[in-house]
Amino acid sequence: MEIRKDFVAPGKGARPGKRLTDCRGLVIHWIGAAQSRAEVIRKNYEQEPYGTQYVIDWNDGHIIQCMPENEVAYHVGAEQYTKTKEQICGRDNPNWHLVGIECCIGDKAIPKDWSTSGRHMDLGKPSQTQYSALVAFAADFLKGHKLTVDNLYRHYDITGKLCHVWFVKDGSRWNRFKADVKQKMEGDSMTKEEVQALITQLLNERDTTARQAAQTVNPNFAASWDKAVKAGLFDNYNPGGTISRDMLAEVMNRAGLIGGTK
After folding, report:
1. How confident is the model at residue 2 (pLDDT cuts 50, 70, 90)?
2. Rounded Cα–Cα distance for residues 16 and 238 (Å)
């Protein structure tokens, strides 16, 4: 993960030069247009009144810091807010308490008719390189500010705006992202019991299979799961279909082969 400082001049464009009251979280945005290069967005911030402290490139995942973290950026202001915003900062403007990172978007992630159709589930999809860099950045940021993944937000969570759209269209993607960040923060320190508890939580939150829930926790889990199925370890179960929570403990023991746990 590469982070380069290229600050907008104080008082110019997207940098008002005001001090952040404190840092209570990180907000993930998308730019809402086909622009894959972070340098272009950084340059636009010299003229635009709105922006974020960070911008992440779609092509190779490098990050530009556009202003200091302890300064305000206007990125989550709105006329109406969600209950989540109230929980974060009460009646205060959330810009005084939240740092933002803007995700650039590649041409392939913006269908031509995206503005007239809400059917595109992959609208705004990050490249794998950008996704991995975003996970690493979020993990470092939260650890540096002594925060947790509970302090990780989509723009949508604060104002209801469809941003970051890819994480809003399918909430399981956001759950997976937060799980990936959590694992990055902790290294490979999750025990089998912790993985089991997290998968149980994911099963409770939405209609899914144990295999899908395992993959949400760690994309490498699915491959290990499939190997276990092929080896006949789940012959008395149906890991490809719905699996009860009562069965989960036994299944997790048999999939103790799942990577990334100890």
Report:
1. confident
2. 57
Q: What strands lie across the sheet with 63-65, from one edge to the other?
A: 3-5, 63-65, 54-56, 99-103, 26-30, 152-154
> What is the average pLDDT across 176-205?
69
8 A C-beta contact, residue 71 and residue 96: no
Query: What is the distance between the alpha carbons of residues 38 and 59, in angstroms, rounded to a whole number?
Result: 9
Whole-number pLDDT of residue 4: 93
pTM of the model: 0.71
Q: What is the dihedral sign for C-alpha 160, 185, 56, 98?
A: positive
CA distance 262 to 260: 7
pLDDT of residue 242: 47
Report yes or no: 8 and 45 within 8 Å, Cβ to Cβ.
Answer: yes
Tell me whether the omega of the peptide bond preceding residue 29 falls within 30 degrees of 0, making it cis: no
